[in-house]
Amino acid sequence: MVKLAIDAMGGDHAPREIIKGVQLALARFSDVEFLLFGVEKEIAPHFAGEERVKIIHCSDVIDMGEQDPIGAVRKGKDSSLVRAFRAVRDKEASGVVSAGPTQGVVAAAHLVIRRIRGMKRVAICPTLPELGGKRRLLLDVGANTELRSEHLLQLAQFASIYAREVMGVENPLVGLLNIGTEPGKGRELENETHELLKNDPNVNFYGNVEGKELFTTDCDILLTDGFTGNMVLKTCEGVARAVGNFLKEEINTFGKKIGYLFMRKVFKKFKKTMSPDEIGGANLFGVDGIVVKAHGSSDAYAFSNAIRQARLAVLGDVVEKMKKIIGDGSDE
């Protein structure tokens, strides 16, 4: 059985949608057990008689608008977020899923679970919408505003294991986001990283990838620093929203509505493809346990998909496989 810790109080719609998401996951996956951390009286009535759910009462909650998430993690020892992460640290659960504040999740991963020995940085890694026939991983998107080439190499190694074991890509291709495709383009960081990736036996390196190829490249993994990655991700989200709004405005006439009737399946598929609910959340690579950060606005369906991600990562044994690559390196 896969045992997952759930921060039941994290998210814009917690605990209601988190509870419903766990209920959906119980129906979808017969091999998962849950430790739910939160206010017991709000959670327990929904799981009466459910043998695969254990509820652990927590007296504190880290608010979605918390201004000092690191301080909140340090002080909130009995918060649902910290307690759920502690369950992974203490090996009571193999992974944790939270829709709580992103900085709080990253802080808890660092301070409670901690990095894999020898892993120099962690990264937030979402899965991009499935366009061009495949889904792609993008990392880092915000855990580190600055990274060195050796950090990016480790993140590429970790993402390669994840793509192989969880996404089923036999030999995942890694692309380095850059301002040009030719070797020698970009900053010193990209040039140094290019050399490391090219010569590493654990990475199937494609080469440099320009931003315009984000959804058309053959690559399965797109690698960059957290500052650039965050800008790229939010630009994609903004473009998708703008296109959606444009289509709504343009369809708002009788003649165009007739055309919409013929195209509605296409529009419906586009909306489903671009929806973050289909993916579930972002993985946090580099810590000694599986961590999935669900979207703060997750509904039940989206949260159940975040659980699906965590389940697959546990079954794929990605953390232990990364440990074998790192060996006993320094974690400085």
Give structural notes.
The protein is α/β, with parallel strands linked by helices and 332 residues long. The protein has two domains: 1-119 and 286-317, Isopropylmalate Dehydrogenase; 120-278, Isopropylmalate Dehydrogenase. Helices cover 44% and strands 16% of the residues. The protein has eleven helices and eleven strands. The strands form two sheets. It has a seven-stranded mixed sheet with strand order 3-2-1-4-11-10-5, with helices on both faces. Strands 6-9-7-8 form a four-stranded parallel sheet, sandwiched between helices. Helix 7 (188-198) links the parallel strand 7 (173-177) and strand 8 (204-209). Helix 1 crosses helix 10 (300-315), helix 4 runs parallel beside helix 5 (102-113) and helix 6 (149-165) packs across helix 7 (188-198). It is globular.
